């Protein structure tokens, strides 16, 4: 018996001003309901990602950790491992604060958009996977890539609901918020060290392009 899942064609509800395809919540949910009804339960994870985010090639539920400062994926019950965690399990997990960021994936790179960003399946942080050295993971060793290949806009003006001063840490290779006085806690020791581009992230409430 084949394990291949054949998805029905998505309903396209029109095009935007720039020619992008627009998917309605109703149309998307209808397609997913059809897939679920056929027994393909592995694709039924709407609790982890909104319908708009899936249809548009974006993933939400990315949040800033108020303890270590990194961007981490908050869509799973297990919140990863924080470099600033204490003795208790709850203190070892990331704690969300601020905005629900919306990150683009599997789109082309450009002069102002860098690919190679991945989710670490061990600590749940966003890290740069473009080097042989995978940085320092608070769960031990280097980061382990999983899921989508994300593309982050950088060195562009803030527009709408977006935030700049997200930076690559040259020590642990995670993406962290450099816009506050507190530079968080780095898994490689001390605080994060900003290098290279100034990334600008969109957050929930604005699903247009930066």
How much helicity do the residues have? 10-25%
First CA to last CA: what distance?
44 Å
Structural category = mainly beta
Number of domains: 2
Beta-strand content bin: 25-35%
What is the β-strand count?
9
Spell out the helices and strands N to C. Answer: HHEEHEEEEEEE
**Sheet with the most strands?**
6 strands, antiparallel
Number of helices: 3
- Would you tell me the overall average pLDDT? 75
Shape: globular
Rg? 18 Å
List the uncertain runs. Answer: 1-56, 86-91, 206-210
Largest sheet, spatial ordering of strands = 2-1-3-9-7-8
In short:
Helix content is 10%, strand content 29%. The protein is mainly beta.
Could you explain how this protein is built, in words?
By secondary structure, the chain is mainly β. The chain has two domains: 1-44, no CATH class; 57-203, no CATH class. The chain is built from three helices and nine strands, in the order ααββαβββββββ. It has helices spanning 25-37, 51-55, 89-92; strands at 58-65, 71-73, 96-104, 113-120, 126-128, 145-153, 162-169, 175-177, 194-203. The strands form two sheets. It has a six-stranded antiparallel β-sheet with strand order 2-1-3-9-7-8. β1 and β2 (71-73) form a beta hairpin. The N and C termini lie far apart (44 Å). 34% of the residues are buried. Mean pLDDT is 75; it is low at 1-56, 86-91 and 206-210.
């Amino acid at each position: 018996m084949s394990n291949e899942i054949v998805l029905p064609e998505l309903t396209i509800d029109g095009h935007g001003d720039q020619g992008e395809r627009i998917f309605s919540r109703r149309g998307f949910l209808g397609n997913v309901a059809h897939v679920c009804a056929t027994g393909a339960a592995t694709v039924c994870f709407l609790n982890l990602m909104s319908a708009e985010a899936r249809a548009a090639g974006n993933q939400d539920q990315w949040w800033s950790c108020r303890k270590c400062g990194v961007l981490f994926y908050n869509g799973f019950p297990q919140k990863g491992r924080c470099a600033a965690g204490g003795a208790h399990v709850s203190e070892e997990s990331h704690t969300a604060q601020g905005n629900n960021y919306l990150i683009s994936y599997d789109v082309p790179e450009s002069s102002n958009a860098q690919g190679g960003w991945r989710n670490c399946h061990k600590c749940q942080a966003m890290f740069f996977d473009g080097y042989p050295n995978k940085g320092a993971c608070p769960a031990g060793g280097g980061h382990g890539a999983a899921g989508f290949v994300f593309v982050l806009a950088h060195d562009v003006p803030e527009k709408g609901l977006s935030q700049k001063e997200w930076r690559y840490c040259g020590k642990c290779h995670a993406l962290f918020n450099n816009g506050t006085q507190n530079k968080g806690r780095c898994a490689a020791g001390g605080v994060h060290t900003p290098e290279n581009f100034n990334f600008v992230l969109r957050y929930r409430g604005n699903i247009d392009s930066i």
